[in-house]
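Schema walk-through. Below, the input block comes first and the output block second. Nothing else is stored per chain. Lengths vary across the set, and this one has 216 residues.
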Amino acid sequence: MNRKDLAGAIIHDLKNQLHSVLTEGEKVIRDIPEEYRDTLRPVFARSRRVHQDAMQLVTLYRMQEKGNFPSDDAWPSDTMKHAVECFQVHWPEVQVQIDIDPDCQGYYNDSLMHMALGNLLTNSAQAGATQIHVSATEEGSGLVIRFEDNGPGFDEAVLEQAQAGTGVNSGKEGGTGMGLYFTELIVNHHGTASRPAVLTLGNRNQGGAFVEIRLP
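--- output ---
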């Protein structure tokens, strides 16, 4: 086994072990008295974040080494609802409005896009947003997904990174800062040289940030 395969195997095992820890931990929280639950919840919130990062590392390894993430017909409304359900387990106080026609259709890998959308939701919440609006529309043969929030907006350094095409890293407190970078990799994975997929970041005139994903 070479070093790359060994690293992939270790990351995969770490992901599985963390999943087991979270499953058992959630059972413990349900069984213990209420007064002790608040003490344990931050620990498991951090554990969930580490588990999410491990899942993304496994995905990144597969993207770079194997590239076996085929796209298929998919429905953004369903993908977004699933991402929001997972997100609000950790951020129940953040209001998310989904404005997507159930018949709206795209062509993407549902598992990858679910991770990308979950990252964008988490980035908004970590930045301080309390309201997030998500929309999706078909444009020609492609799909446009747009996030808008009422947070403080992106730092100028992040917007400069995005415009320069050097990769984006939010560096938000409470996270690894890799969420936007990983989202950008997922978006780029869905494009080709002749028909690129595009991730656009910006700040809204009325305050808050927006992120737009354009898939061919």
